[in-house]
Amino acid sequence: MKVTLKTIAEEAGLSITTVSRALAGYGDVNEDTRRRIVAIAQRLGYQPNLAARHLRSKQTRTIGMVIPLTSYFSDPFFMELLSGVGRQAAEYGYDLLLSAQQPGEEELSAYRRMVASSRIDGVVLARVLADDPRIAFLKEARHPFVAFGRSNANDYPYIDVDGATGVYRLVEHLVARGHRRIAIILSPRTLAFTTARFEGYQRALNEAGIALAGQYIVESDLTQEGGRMAAQRLLDLPSPPTAIVACNDAMAIGTMQAIRACGRVVGRDVAVAGFDDIPTAAFTDPPLTTVRQPIYDIGRRALDMLVCVIRQEPLDEAHVLLVPELIVRQSSGAPPSR
Amino acid sequence: MKVTLKTIAEEAGLSITTVSRALAGYGDVNEDTRRRIVAIAQRLGYQPNLAARHLRSKQTRTIGMVIPLTSYFSDPFFMELLSGVGRQAAEYGYDLLLSAQQPGEEELSAYRRMVASSRIDGVVLARVLADDPRIAFLKEARHPFVAFGRSNANDYPYIDVDGATGVYRLVEHLVARGHRRIAIILSPRTLAFTTARFEGYQRALNEAGIALAGQYIVESDLTQEGGRMAAQRLLDLPSPPTAIVACNDAMAIGTMQAIRACGRVVGRDVAVAGFDDIPTAAFTDPPLTTVRQPIYDIGRRALDMLVCVIRQEPLDEAHVLLVPELIVRQSSGAPPSR
DNA sequence: CTGTTAGCGCCTTCAG
DNA sequence: CTGAAGGCGCTAACAG
């Protein structure tokens, strides 16, 4: 049988209320009765029924995250973010409720369900779209949330990495090594950060006096395989690039595959750079030059912020912008062949 | 304001009961009223309050997992398992409740809380100990669970990988390449799978007519750094091993670091092999020979089993044992130097 | 210091 | 076919 307050109350010959208050540590309970109640609770292994508590208190001490099903598995990015959020949530005594969903309509309705059904106190969301219905919904519902990423309408608490500066430094680095034909594999335009990263690319080329060439600008889907195919197209050009910047590490790894597949050597014949610095990046062959996003820490800080929002405490900074770090490894190693 | 059954009932001029039944799809509601109620619910964006529902129905459609905090971040193993479980949970309409906890007492009490507080319908647990208090607790509480791994008392539903055979094949492979001085870096003895993997090691050496040497058997903590230190000790021996088998990939990667650090070449001077085949394993330099555990699929299947247990349906197989696959890459590449 | 009362939102008898 | 009543387990006034 389940042990409830009632069980304890009967055992102690007291009312449910008193037991509740004693266990909650209220001051207005006789110290002796309190001790007695606690002892019984302990002995019976009492655990409060959280469903009941949530129903009453409208609080769940649970944070929700929706994971898009497609990128779920193959996406170290999400996993790392999740780790950071989960780690910090534990710190505050919060649990994490995960719902894996197909992106799109289902995903949005997962948010709707989570929020309206009082299962969570707040939401962390990632991979912000330029025009994001999830954010629109959460704002409208006035439900606490923090996003990893800015969108067009960014009047909400977020933490983001300055992707423009990140890619700028990356391209600058490649230019310094003598590259002039520098291609970029963009992420989908719908994602908010794509614009920023592209901007960094443009600015760096501009300052180096290199004209933007449409043929060197391609778009893919953030997967390794997508990166491989995009790179293939670039390498098949009559005048192929000597350096390829991918908007994330997974696509950069795919790019390396493509380069090897056509018999060229990464870092010697074609330089490659990524973005994220996922764990694997340090172990690729050759190790990948990239821009480090401290995803794990971002997860932790996002949760810090979210807890403030939930408690309706003022945030010291509602908009955090981190400057990413350039990590130079061997994939951008040698100057271009010519 | 929150939309509840009451809101809809007032709007429709009906009782809460009828609304509830209409929305639940009971047959005993006039088709017209039903339609009208559904329309109102839709218009108002009604979402049932799950806390209330759980309180009533004693069901949560939620699966719980406790993640040990230490190995959380650095552990691709858990992340992959999580992905598989989450993926399949979505299939059944279940959500995932994660609680990150310090291993030990706190971890156990997290299980206690989850179970007794009616927050979840079932539990998936991993990294089974030889003598596992969590399993003892779940069995005693008669709470649905499925484990990834067998323990000493294995009268519970589990799915496991035949680690003995896995390591056996690994060592057999090394022997075939001419190695005789083969060391093993074990995982902690408290973990159930350590015994099995060690057994595979013993059997393979035995069949090859190689005597077991205590100096070649060391133990570490499944982390990369731990692997590095353990390998260091092995390499400092007067007669160091020509091949090192680590009980997981993380330690194998640490081993490669140690080998490089003392100026030797992995795969040429010293062969290295791991266990798991984490995503990074294919990208290490050189790529890591290992034993593939289909962790993602295991997560999915564990969830399939768990759903059966929850529904009190009979399991076709309460004990699943998968035979892992040997993945030969370059880290075990060349025959020993001598 | 303790007990009574009320209700969170939902579902399920049991009567009409 | 519909409604009234009761209760899941907990907490928060409000009295004594």
Compact summary:
The first copy, chain A, is of the alpha/beta class and 338 residues long. In chain A, 46% of the residues lie in helices and 15% in strands.
What does the secondary structure layout of this molecule look like, with pairings?
The structure is a homodimer of 338-residue chains.
Chain A: H1 5-12, H2 16-24, H3 31-44, H4 50-57, E1 62-68, H5 69-74, H6 76-92, E2 95-101, H7 105-116, E3 122-125, H8 133-141, E4 145-148, E5 158-161, H9 163-176, E6 182-186, H10 192-207, E7 217-219, H11 224-235, E8 243-246, H12 249-261, E9 271-273, E10 290-292, H13 295-310, E11 319-322, E12 325-327
Parallel strand pairs in A: 1-2, 1-3, 3-4, 4-5, 5-11, 6-7, 6-8, 8-9
Antiparallel strand pairs in A: 10-12
The structure holds a DNA duplex (16 and 16 nucleotides).
Structure description:
The structure is a homodimer of 338-residue chains. With 338 residues, chain A is of the alpha/beta class. The first copy, chain A, has 13 helices and twelve strands. In chain A, the strands form three sheets. In chain A, strands 2-1-3-4-5-11 form a six-stranded parallel beta sheet, with helices on both faces. A four-stranded parallel beta sheet of chain A has the order 7-6-8-9, with helices on both faces. The first copy, chain A, has a two-stranded antiparallel ribbon with strand order 10-12. In chain A, helix 11 (224-235) crosses helix 12. The radius of gyration of chain A is 26 Å and the shape is elongated. Chain A starts with a helix and ends in an 11-residue tail after the last strand. The model of chain A has no long low-confidence stretch (mean pLDDT 90). The first copy, chain A, binds a DNA duplex (16 and 16 nucleotides) through helix 2 and helix 4.
